[in-house]
Amino acid sequence: MKMFKINTALVLCAGYGKRLNPLTLKNPKPLLKLNDLTLLENTINLIKKLDISDIKLNTFYLKDQIKIFIEQKNFDVKIEIIEDGDKILDTGGGILNMTNSLNEQDFLVFNPDTVWSIDYLNCIKEMENFYFSKKIQNILMVVNKDLSFDKKLKGDFNLKKNLLSKVDENQYIYTGCQILNKNLLKNINKKIFSINEIWNALVEKNNLFGFESVNKFSHVTDLEIYNKLLKRY
């Protein structure tokens, strides 16, 4: 019996990765490697361990490389590539575009520039259980910035009783994993926008939920951090 209720994961792969230039001038950021494994494959491996049957990737920058990578790897899970189109749609627009072909109401979203590991499995399952038990429509996995490998990263939110807020000094970083419901996007009348716009509107209503991860957090922020991570992995 499948314990995990969510069947679809979206992976954001359209960005330019400019902070990793010159590496990303010829290679899309999701295809950079740590320990001989691309960030994208690492993300897909975690999604597979969640017993998720359907993965959708959005592409724009150097999209052909990602397409060829998926074809050559021949992952034993359904992966659909959905292009942003003529213009990059930003995070919110990319998610909205992918959900147009989504039957389920609830879905996971991953950023592949986080170094995901099996240590996150239990946390994601617990977050999903909280999401459905509380009958909410959003939840973001966050981590205390003290656990971040990149000490330059500033916090995105504060967290109290699973509610996220924003102040001048925020202690929690968004990890790059969230669960959303399609209803959050149904009244959006533009194609290009950041998911931060949705989050900020929910924060104002005191209705943006968070779930704390206690795993050490590694994120490929820029070239300096990537080079440091190469020595670690």
- Tell me the helix content: 25-40%
User: What fold name stands as the CATH topology?
Assistant: Spore Coat Polysaccharide Biosynthesis Protein SpsA, Chain A
Tally of helical runs: 6
Which percent range describes the beta-strand content? 15-25%
- Give the integer mean of the pLDDT values: 96
- CATH architecture tag: Alpha-Beta Complex
Counting DSSP E segments of at least 2 residues, the number of strands comes to: 11
Descriptive account of the structure:
By secondary structure, the chain is of the alpha/beta class. It contains six helices and eleven strands. The chain is globular, with a radius of gyration of 17 Å. The model has no long low-confidence stretch (mean pLDDT 96).
Topology of this structure?
Blueprint: E1 8-12, E2 33-34, E3 37-38, H1 39-49, E4 54-59, H2 63-73, E5 78-83, H3 90-99, E6 106-110, H4 121-133, E7 138-144, E8 158-160, E9 163-165, E10 172-181, H5 195-204, E11 210-213, H6 223-232
Parallel strand pairs: 1-4, 1-6, 4-5, 7-11
Antiparallel strand pairs: 2-3, 6-10, 7-10, 8-9
Helix pairs in contact: 3-5
Compact overview of the structure:
With 233 residues, the protein is of the alpha/beta class. The chain contains six helices and eleven strands.
